């Protein structure tokens, strides 16, 4: 087959982007490995989309370099980069059928008709839209449109697929479903995925690695587990998951709510804080309890409802304890 | 403009109703209020179409001032009646429309004599009352049943002295001779005058023009088509000449003076074989001021003082032979019936034009387009 | 009675007086024209028969169609480039361009027409300059012919062509064009395969607008054509005001009306008219 998938590796070397005097991306250094699912995570304005657009070639880089498999692509125009892209809102061609949308990349490359047909069929199967080939995008649901966009971007077997908040327009339930499909497709095609989102859950559940971005710079890079378990900064700790920040021996530590034990009454041997319950919120599988400590901190504690059946009530006095390794020292400068 | 017309008609109608007691004062005031018009103004406007005024329908511009001073003042002095003006231009179609709609708001129209021939028999015009209007105070043949010629204008031509300095064109034959007189000509788009000029150029005698030999005339017109452009209004031909778009142009002869002035004498007027056109006053059927008043108005316009004032003010030549001899020296070259010109000119036949004008215009348009 | 009332939305009661007015004041005169076309000067289809019998009428209709089609082609293609430039330049320049475009709406057609004479006439600026420079020996005949009419009409029509195109282009999602490039399409491929088809409703709207407006053109052909370019609108006016052949005028007016309606109908078979006139492109 002409278009066998194979991932590409990207090197981003000291890339900056200025819009006039405004610095949108600042000296970003990043190695993206062949075939990995890398997520750029950050709040809006963190530079993640700008970085993606520079990788795609829609924006020039102000300084630095981007290389694909060791070759610089900084001066290669977008249409020559051969990167697939799934746009925010999908940007499907409304006047073309699903088949023509998916086959577009091959058609503009003047591939033979039969070849295009076969490849599009393959793609339709990949995203399970065989029955929708002759529809127009306007006649499809949001989830189906999203899959068309994915198939269109993958049809020409790009080494790198860029995804710009592709699930933003879907409702929550559908989003989880599509996440599964995306991961599955990633596994099957082996293309390098670069995924932009501001949704931490999406990032955690799908990525091989996550890049947390803030104010145009990389805050921290790592696997979901590394980032969750060992956030380096207050920002990383609070953006990815929830975190308490506690002072210990003059340093600041991040402490995940679920890693704290709560004890009714006083006098617990491992107690590190004492306080009263300010509020209790019930989430089904767990309860979130906010404790106001005697040191005037507010500490959130998540407890597993099933495994911890103490009868807790607002206003009661409790003690909190945690293991040493639960608290991660932050790099606060 | 249509809105205004509608408003005017509605208010005039209600003014009548109010006066006759068909409408109460409050309703009438409310209508006036809704139209943004003071009641007094409407009643005055209504009077415009009543017996103490004559409404003259002309072409605007200087005409209002000139008709007022030349005819209106004398008319008012003699009869005590005023003169008002409608300046929308009494084209034949508009007169027909006005009479057909039953809303006649004008008493006398400044039109062409051939309009009297085409609109009279169809019942659109009041006959001229020759007990009041005089047949002797116009040229013979120009006092017709439904219209009388009050002034004359003419079709003459101007030429560029820089183009033909040593050997200037003298007559229509030269005008149509593009070989010996190269250059672009401007002709009148609505056929009138252009057809007669073509026939004279082709050798037809000035007193044997009618009935016009259309084929012969149109062939002559077509023979210089590549060197011709056509004008529809006096200002248009004026601009064609002063912008040097043409080297010769058929023009209304009263424009000759303006053109000579505006081109510092570069263009010269030629009156030889100029065609006298009878401009006529005609009266729409059922005119509001009544027949007697309007006939008095027309009679006033025939008088020598009025005739001379019209010449002075508008450049329109008298049609009353008694005035011919009194045309002042400086007007002589531009007045078609002046002693200087009267022997060189030919006369338009309004009867032929009234009966055949529509077809002639269409045939002409077809030939030039 | 109640059964009828139940089927009529009460909202109609509010618009009914206006509707009656529109029908009376708009449809009435149109019907009158149609009536006139089969009764004046005598009852029958004589006026319509003239279309077959008279070469000159056919020629006028043909001249009108030819000029309108050429005008439309040029106005819409030039308008397309202008609208494209406006959509894709900086906001400041866009505002300048929009202002210039709208200002041209306010300049009387007579002024514009005579400006062309001053610029391109026999003794106009262009001819004079060329002659002074020795580029030409005799003036180029830009004006007082069909070329002049076309120049004047295209100039007048361009703003009308631009506006629907502008609206259509502005409503496009620029990401769709990015997507096309990203999928490897060159600039011209993106234009022909994506941009142009997506702006098609704007092109159709602009074409209809310009063509229909062109059909009614009067002043420009009369002046810039030097009397030699006779179009239907001017001919109708002559028949009404000068030659009193109202039946012929009404017949031509009815013909133009039918032509325009037919055009709208044909268009409606190819695309939703609501999409053409400002509806969404989806």
Could you please describe the fold and organization of this structure?
The complex is a heterotrimer of chains A (333), B (369) and C (282). Chain A is of the alpha+beta class and 333 residues long. In chain A, helix 2 crosses helix 3 (113-126) and helix 3 packs across helix 4 (142-154). Chain A is built from 8 helices and 18 strands. Chain A starts with 9 loop residues before the first strand and ends with a strand. Chain B folds into 2 domains: 2-151 and 279-329, Periplasmic binding protein-like II (D-Maltodextrin-Binding Protein, domain 2), CATH 3.40.190; 153-278 and 338-368, D-Maltodextrin-Binding Protein, domain 2, CATH 3.40.190.10. Helix content of chain B is 44%, strand content 18%. In chain B, strands 1, 2, 3, 4, 5, 6, 7, 8, 9, 10, 11 and 12 form a 12-stranded mixed beta sheet that branches. In chain B, helix 4 crosses helix 12. The model of chain B is unreliable at 36-49 (pLDDT under 50). Chain C folds into 2 domains: 1-39; 44-276, MetI-like (MetI-like fold). Helix content of chain C is 78%, strand content 0%. Chain C is an all-alpha fold and 282 residues long. Chain A binds chain C through residues 56-58, 77-85, 87-89, 91-95, 104-105, 108-109, 138, 152-153, 156, and chain C through 173, 175-176, 178-186, 189, 193-194, 197-198, 281-282.
Average pLDDT score of chain C: 88
Radius of gyration over C-alpha positions of chain A, nearest whole angstrom: 24 Å
Relative helix content of chain A: 25-40%
Distance between the termini of chain A: 54 Å
Uncertain regions of chain A: pLDDT < 50 for 5+ in a row? none
């Amino acid at each position: 087959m002409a278009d066998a998938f194979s991932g590409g590796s990207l090197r981003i070397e000291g890339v900056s982007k200025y819009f006039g005097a405004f610095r949108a991306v600042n000296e970003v250094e990043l190695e993206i490995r062949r075939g990995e699912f890398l997520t750029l995570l950050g709040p809006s304005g963190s530079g993640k989309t700008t970085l993606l657009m520079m990788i795609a070639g829609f924006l020039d880089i102000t300084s630095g370099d981007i290389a694909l498999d060791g070759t610089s692509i900084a001066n290669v125009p977008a249409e020559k980069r051969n990167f697939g892209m799934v746009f925010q809102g999908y940007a499907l061609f409304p006047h073309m059928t699903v088949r023509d949308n998916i086959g577009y990349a091959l058609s503009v490359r003047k591939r033979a008709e039969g070849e295009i047909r076969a490849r599009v069929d393959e793609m339709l199967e990949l995203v399970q839209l065989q029955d929708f080939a002759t529809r127009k995008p306007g006649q499809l649901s949001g989830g189906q449109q999203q899959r068309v966009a994915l198939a269109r971007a993958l049809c020409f077997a790009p080494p790198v697929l860029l995804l710009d908040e592709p699930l933003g327009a879907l409702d929550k339930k559908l989003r989880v479903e599509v996440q599964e499909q995306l991961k599955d497709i990633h596994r099957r095609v082996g293309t390098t995925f670069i995924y932009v989102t501001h949704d931490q859950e999406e990032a955690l559940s799908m990525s091989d690695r996550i890049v947390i971005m803030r104010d145009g710079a990389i805050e921290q890079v790592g696997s979901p587990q590394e980032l969750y378990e060992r956030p380096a900064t207050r920002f990383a700790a609070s953006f990815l998951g929830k975190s308490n920040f506690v002072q210990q021996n003059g340093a600041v530590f991040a402490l995940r709510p679920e890693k704290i034990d709560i004890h009714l009454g006083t006098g617990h041997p491992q107690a590190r804080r004492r306080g009263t319950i300010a509020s209790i919120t019930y989430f089904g599988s767990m309860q979130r309890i906010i404790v106001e400590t005697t040191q005037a901190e507010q500490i959130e504690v998540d407890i597993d409802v099933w495994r911890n059946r103490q009868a807790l009530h607002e206003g009661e006095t409790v003690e909190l304890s945690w293991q040493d390794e639960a608290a991660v020292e932050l790099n606060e400068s | 403009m249509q809105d205004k017309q509608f408003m005017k008609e509605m208010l005039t109608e209600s003014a009548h109703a109010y006066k006759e007691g068909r409408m109460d004062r409050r309703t009438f005031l409310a209508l006036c209020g809704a139209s943004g018009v003071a009641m007094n103004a409407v009643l005055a406007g209504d009077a415009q179409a009543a017996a103490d005024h004559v409404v003259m329908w002309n072409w605007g511009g200087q005409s209002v001032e000139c008709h007022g001073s030349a005819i209106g003042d004398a008319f008012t002095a003699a009869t005590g009646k005023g003169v008002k003006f409608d300046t929308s231009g009494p084209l034949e179609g508009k007169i027909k429309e006005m009479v057909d709609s039953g809303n006649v708001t004008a008493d006398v129209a400044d039109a062409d004599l051939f309009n009297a021939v085409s609109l009279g028999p169809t019942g659109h015009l009041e006959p001229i009352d020759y007990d009041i209007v005089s047949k002797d105070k116009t040229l013979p043949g120009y006092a017709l049943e439904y219209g009388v010629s009050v002034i004359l204008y003419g079709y003459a031509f101007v030429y560029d002295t820089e183009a033909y300095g040593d050997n200037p064109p003298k007559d229509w034959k030269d005008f149509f001779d593009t070989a010996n007189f190269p250059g672009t000509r401007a002709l009148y788009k609505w056929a009138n005058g252009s057809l007669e000029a073509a026939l004279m150029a082709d050798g037809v005698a000035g007193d044997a023009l009618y009935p016009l030999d259309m084929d012969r005339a149109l062939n002559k017109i077509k023979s210089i088509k590549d060197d011709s452009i056509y004008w529809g209004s006096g200002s248009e031909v004026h601009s064609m000449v002063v912008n040097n778009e043409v080297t010769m142009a058929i023009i209304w002869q009263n424009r000759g003076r303006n053109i000579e002035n505006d081109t510092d004498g570069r263009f010269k007027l030629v009156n030889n074989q100029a065609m006298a056109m009878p401009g006529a006053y005609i009266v729409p059927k059922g005119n509001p001021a009544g027949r007697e008043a309007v006939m008095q108005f027309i009679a006033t316009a025939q008088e020598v003082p009025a005739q001379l004032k019209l010449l002075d003010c508008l450049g329109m030549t008298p049609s009353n032979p008694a005035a011919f001899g009194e045309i002042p020296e400086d007007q002589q070259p531009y007045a078609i019936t002046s002693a200087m010109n009267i022997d060189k000119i030919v006369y338009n036949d309004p009867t032929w034009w009234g009966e055949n004008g529509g077809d002639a215009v269409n045939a002409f348009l077809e030939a030039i387009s | 009675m109640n059964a009828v009332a139940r089927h009529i939305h009460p909202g109609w009661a509010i618009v009914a007086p206006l509707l009656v007015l529109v029908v009376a004041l708009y449809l009435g005169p149109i019907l009158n024209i149609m009536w006139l076309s089969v009764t004046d000067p005598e009852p029958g289809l004589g006026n319509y028969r003239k279309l077959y019998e008279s070469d000159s009428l056919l020629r006028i209709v043909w001249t009108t169609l030819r000029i309108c089609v050429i005008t439309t082609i040029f106005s819409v293609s030039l308008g397309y480039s202008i609208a494209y430039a406006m959509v894709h330049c900086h906001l400041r320049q866009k505002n300048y361009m929009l202002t210039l475009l709208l200002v041209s709406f306010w300049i009387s057609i007579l002024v514009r027409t005579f400006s062309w004479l001053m610029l391109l006439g026999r003794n106009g600026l262009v001819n004079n300059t060329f002659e002074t420079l020795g580029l030409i020996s005799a003036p180029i005949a830009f004006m007082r012919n069909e070329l002049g009419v076309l120049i004047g009409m295209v100039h007048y029509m361009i703003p009308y062509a631009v506006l629907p195109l502008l609206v259509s282009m502005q409503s496009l999602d620029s990401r769709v064009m990015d997507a096309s490039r990203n999928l490897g399409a060159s600039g011209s491929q993106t234009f022909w395969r994506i941009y142009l088809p997506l702006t098609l409703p704007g092109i159709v709207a602009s074409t209809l607008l310009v063509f229909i407006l062109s059909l009614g053109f009067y002043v420009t052909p009369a002046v810039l054509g030097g009397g030699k370019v006779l179009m239907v609108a001017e001919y109708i006016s002559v028949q009404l005001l000068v030659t009193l052949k109202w039946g012929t005028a009404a017949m031509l007016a009815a013909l133009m009306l039918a032509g325009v309606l037919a055009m709208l109908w044909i268009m409606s078979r190819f695309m939703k008219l609501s999409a053409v006139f400002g509806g969404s492109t989806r």
